TrEMBL record:
Residues that hold Mg(2+) according to the record: E71, D144, I146, D147, D291
Matching PROSITE patterns: IMP_1, IMP_2
Organism ancestry: Eukaryota, Fungi, Dikarya, Basidiomycota, Agaricomycotina
InterPro entries with a match to the protein in the record: DPNP, Inositol_monoP_metal-BS, Inositol_monoP_superfamily, Inositol_monophosphatase-like, Inositol_monophosphatase_CS
EC number(s) on file: 3.1.3.7
UniProt keywords, alphabetically: Hydrolase, Magnesium, Metal-binding
Catalysis: reaction(s): adenosine 3',5'-bisphosphate + H2O = AMP + phosphate; 3'-phosphoadenylyl sulfate + H2O = adenosine 5'-phosphosulfate + phosphate; adenosine 2',5'-bisphosphate + H2O = AMP + phosphate
Entry similarity comment: Belongs to the inositol monophosphatase superfamily.
Protein name: 3'(2'),5'-bisphosphate nucleotidase
Top-level enzyme category: hydrolase
Keyword Metal-binding part of the UniProt annotation: yes
Pfam families attached to this UniProt entry: Inositol_P
């Protein structure tokens, strides 16, 4: 008998690896015209759209009934009158078909929709399969075709992130990080890592270049002064100042490592960094499920704990977002509660200052 979710894992790995081929190819010759600014002022590129088209096409072929909560939608590509939209549609079609048409490898199957191209209409419809509202029950996939689009654009870290949720619990998480070093102790060495976790079956990493998987276990945390925080590059996404105060409360002297995307969860799960702390910057932003689903399972399966800043589990059953934003704290089991306590201490200090008018 095969392990639970074996087929879902294989399909997700195939979809993520093909999408990573696409994003890496795009980075090599991306032009300004291929980037759009969304209504929320965040960037999206032809690579985000085409990667979502590829992954949704594969998931839909393999599991036709499964809904998908995907970050992107095709509305900006559909304008019948805009020349820019026509160019983008054409590029998305070429890019998606470049990675959908190669025939299935030995690890893949034809019934996952591989080995032939799709029309633009089919690919736009595939992107819009990501419009599911989410919710408490049933199966659904959560997809971030490029997490850390700003990192992608600056040649930094980004991740192609796909997760399967059943009754709002993450069961499978697959992430491809094309720019992450295979060996964290050799940052200028080979890059391109695949991270895979299945609930109850552990967390694994392997280089894109081989099938040699390593099991990930978060090592014991170092003494508090040497604990390394992982945090967002963008100060607008997560409060750097609050993190610094938490670190100083704990007596941490090590400098934080700033990195875009769920590569932070990947790094933590392989012991390269000890705490991922993401505190809201106070602008009413709600965290999206696709920004945490696969990463949180990876860390849990590597033996860590993921919660909000009050120590409560993340709730993936509220729709496309995690609801009101109380931040995200991911860390090894031996240190997680200390981080939560330090956060509460800093918050108490802040509210004391406010009430005393300082
Ligand atoms: N205001 C605000 N607050 C918190 N988070 C936000 C905010 N705006 C955007 N986002 C989401 O942040 C995702 C990338 O954040 P990261 O922490 O991974 O990277 S970084 O902040 O860009 O360094 C990024 O993911 P992608 O859009 O997939 O790149 C966004 O979903
Ligand atoms: Mg985005
Ligand atoms: Mg994201
Ligand atoms: Mg994204």
């Amino acid at each position: 008998m095969s392990a639970a979710f074996a087929l879902e894992k294989q399909v997700a790995v195939s979809a993520v690896l093909r999408a990573c081929q696409l994003t890496s190819a795009v980075f090599k010759n991306l032009v300004t015209k291929e980037t759009v600014t969304k209504k929320d002022k965040s960037p999206v590129t032809v690579a985000d759209y085409a990667a979502q088209a590829v992954i949704n096409t594969i998931i839909t072929a393999a599991f036709p009934k499964d809904p998908i909560v995907g970050e992107e939608d095709a509305s900006d590509l559909r304008s019948p009158t805009s020349d820019d939209a026509a160019l983008l549609r054409e590029r998305v079609t070429t890019l998606a078909n470049d990675v959908l048409t190669p025939p299935p490898s030995e690890e893949e199957r034809a019934e996952w929709g591989l080995g032939f191209g799709r029309t633009t209409t089919e690919l736009l419809a595939a992107i819009d399969r990501g419009n599911y509202a989410g919710g408490r029950t049933g199966r659904m996939w959560a997809l971030d075709p490029i997490d850390g689009t700003k990192g992608f654009l600056r040649g930094g870290q980004y991740a192609v992130c796909l997760a399967l949720l059943v009754d709002s619990v993450v069961q499978v998480g697959v992430m491809g990080c094309p720019n992450l070093p295979v060996d964290p102790s050799n940052p200028s060495g080979e890059t391109g890592c695949l991270f895979v976790a299945v609930r109850g079956q552990g967390a694994q990493q392997r280089p894109f270049s081989s099938f040699q998987s390593t099991t990930l276990r978060i090592p014991p945390s170092p003494s508090l002064s040497d604990v390394q925080f992982l945090e967002s590059v963008e100060a607008a996404h997560s409060s750097h100042g609050f993190n610094a105060r938490v670190a100083s409360t704990l007596g941490v002297t090590a400098q934080p490592n700033r990195m875009d995307s769920q590569a932070k969860y990947c790094s933590l799960s392989r012991g390269a960094g000890n705490v991922y702390l993401r505190m809201p910057t106070g602008q009413g932003y709600r965290e999206k499920i696709w920004d945490h689903a696969s990463g949180s399972l990876l860390v849990e399966e590597a033996g860590g704990i993921v919660s909000d800043s009050l120590g409560r589990p993340l709730d993936f059953g509220l729709g496309r977002t995690l609801g009101e934003n109380f931040g995200v704290v991911a860390a090894g089991k031996d240190i997680h509660s200390k981080i939560i306590e330090a956060i509460q201490a800093v918050k108490a200090e802040e509210s004391e200052k406010l009430t005393s008018g300082l």
